[in-house]
Amino acid sequence: MKPTPFIQICDLEKSFPLKRGLFAHLYQQQGYKNPHVHALNGINLSIEKGEALCVVGETGCGKSTLARVLMGLIAPSKGQIYYQGQRIDNLTHNERMPFRKSMQMIFQNPYTSLNPRMTIFQTLSEPVSFHNAKLTKEQVDDKVAELMLSVDLNPDLSDAYPHEFSGGQRQRISIARALSVDPDFIVADEPLASLDVSVQAQVLNLMKDKQQQHNLTYLFITHDLTVVKHFANRVVVMYLGQVCEIADANTLFTQAKHPYTQALISAIPRLDNNAITPIKLAGEVPTPLHKPTGCAFQARCHYANDRCRNEVPIPMQIDVSTLIACHAVEEERL
Questions:
Q1: Bridge partners for 187 per DSSP
Q2: Most exposed residue of 55, 175, 176, 193, measured as fewest CB within 10 angstroms of its CB?
Q3: Is the sign of the CA dihedral 193, 164, 117, 124 positive or negative?
Q4: Which band of pLDDT confidence, cut at 50, 70 and 90, is reported for residue 31?
């Protein structure tokens, strides 16, 4: 019997209505009475305990929306989410509270994710006290000091405010806040995007160390494939709200199957003599205001045919580690 995945996402969809604004007015003039932005279109995904699953894709493909739906910050339009076999997407705020401790999130921008009116001590002690009401003040103080030391920050700085720290230090504080309640699962939504390259390496190494120390499971969202190569166990490639390919990191970078994945990997800068000629994609990314007909990538794919334009590809298992949604691969045209 196959074990139950740590996290299971089934047929997940999310659309946002355009009720006001310029775009809503323009589309209503064109005859669309109820325009929606379709951010997620039938996502099926499983995450195993202890792995680092990276989600990649260009801006607007639905990565951050997936993270927020998974964490319960926004409700899905359709589909189910299971945590250790229990469905959680349909729970009320109070019913979901026990899962808040187990599931934490690190946001993209450390300059906005920390409350500027709260000291670092207040930021870190609040979740500790809330989820551990029996702790004494001294125990909370010790926990905060331990958290700051764990992310290489001096506990003497706990009375300082976020604006007194650098971007890398703020992101370390965000990591400490996520770890403050001893979670099992962390969603990291582009946590390195606003940091310098040298600081990115420090934060990434810190996150890997914490994964090993606490057996953490990560859903790591990024658009930087060089980060993926060093951090991920498995990679999910998304395009326009749909999953194109799922593979382990080594397989993805050496034997990418989907045309979109191949184009992404060809664009990675290289310093060796084995540089790949970048694959130039035709056309522009379609608007998410309408669900794509057929394959989401067909408008820009060099291998698209009539079937690609009319029939949504069903993800198929290529081997033990690779899942792909592509008619060209299925028909061996690629």
A1: 105, 219
A2: 193
A3: positive
A4: low
| Distance between CA atoms of residues 271 and 273, nearest Å | 7
pLDDT band at 193 (very low <50, low <70, confident <90, very high): confident
Report the chain's C-alpha Rg in angstroms. 21
CA-CA distance, 331 to 334, in Å (whole number)? 8
Extract the tokens encoding 296: 């989401």
Which residue, 270, 254, 271, 267, is CA-closest to 322? 254
- pTM, two decimal places: 0.90
**How far is Cα 61 from Cα 237, in angstroms, rounded to an integer?**
10
160: which 2 tokens? 């300082």
For 41-58, the pLDDT digits (tens) are 999 999 999 999 999 998
φ, ψ of residue 294 to 5 degrees: the values are 75, -145
The tokens describing 193, both together, are 């995007």
- Summarised one tens digit per residue, pLDDT across range 228-282 is 988 999 999 999 999 999 999 999 998 999 999 999 998 887 776 566 778 888 7
For residue 86, the surrounding DSSP H or E stretch is strand 86-87
Structure tokens, 51: 């792995």
* 262 backbone dihedrals φ, ψ, rounded to 5°: -60, -40
> Which residue in 62, 104, 69 sits closest to 88, CA to CA?
69
